[in-house]
Amino acid sequence: MTTMTPRGSLWLAAAFMALALTPTVPVAAANEPDGHISIIWHVNARQPWIGRGTNAAKLEAALLKQCNKVLKADCKVAMTFSTGASIIGQMANGNHFVSYSKTSLADARAAMDEQCRTRDTDCIILHEFEALKAPTKTSYQVPKASPDLFRRFGAVAWQKPTTRPVRVWVATGRNTQDLAKGDALANCQADTGGECVVAQYGADTTLIVYTADGKSLAVTQDSDLDRAQNMVRFICLREKQACKVQAVVDSELEETSVYNIAL
Fold it and tell me: How many CA atoms within 13 Å lie on the side-chain side of 156?
């Protein structure tokens, strides 16, 4: 987990798809009946569990119970707060993160933008929350338990070192990141009998495999196909390289494939 506090803001990232348990943000005296917002998430879920009410501990406990009932285990508290504003965003690789400001929604957005620039990634806002103005009756916003709730993961693997014939192994449409990475890696190792590495993985994204100057092999991704293609163009122009797209892979569609790469 990465925690930074630019301009009084807090930015919590689910780095490498590993969601981290974060503590309740202390913003008021314990004897004040503030209105709290609690956000619960899971690495395999597209939507968070959200609660509003005066008792933060009860909100978290109830939401964790509901989330774990659907996901079976490993639901985490993303954030609980009673002042300021919070944003749930998504990075290009599908990772979700929370950006928080104790002052305003505008500052939370600014913190998100700054950290996404620092990580050289595009980000989109999924949800925005502002602190309750006054104590409120307890309520819950719970996502529907359906196939659409679950994220779909994909991974790309290749040999290390890369040898001819150059190939790329792809596993997509998996229910977890471990399945996607494990399947791509296992298929590469089975076909080559040598060492392989997972080049990149993500959830609900498009992965683009490309070659640069007919020599190096690379992969980039984004939740939006146009942005992923533009990223390839940007990188190749910046590095002054002649690039060729070799494979375009949708992590949401189930696929187990080997791509032969033409250098």
Answer: 25
Question: Which residues make Cβ contacts (< 8 Å) with residue 65, sequence separation at least 6?
Answer: none
Please name which of 138, 132, 133 lies closest in space to residue 59, comparing C-alpha atoms. 138
Average pLDDT over residues 81-108: 93
Torsion angle defined by CA atoms of residues 79, 84, 88 and 93, in that order, rounded to the nearest 10 degrees: -100
Instruction: List beta partners, residue 39.
Output: 50, 79
Residue type, 123: C
Phi, psi dihedrals of residue 254, rounded to the nearest 5° = -70, 125
Q: Which residues contact 260 (CB under 8 A, 6 or more apart)?
A: 165, 166, 167
SS3 5: coil
Amino acid identity of residue 216, one-letter, is S
pLDDT digits (tens, 9 = 90+) for 241-250: 999 999 999 9
Structure tokens, 11: 């930015």
Using one digit for the tens of pLDDT, what is the confidence trace for 215-241? 899 999 999 999 999 999 999 999 999
How large is the C-alpha radius of gyration of the chain? Answer: 21
The continuous run of DSSP H or E covering 186 comes out as helix 177-192
Q: What one-character DSSP code corresponds to residue 45? A: B
Q: Nearest 5 degrees, angle CA 28-CA 30-CA 31?
A: 110
**Burial of residue 226 (number of CB atoms within 10 Å: 0-12, 13-18, 19+):** exposed
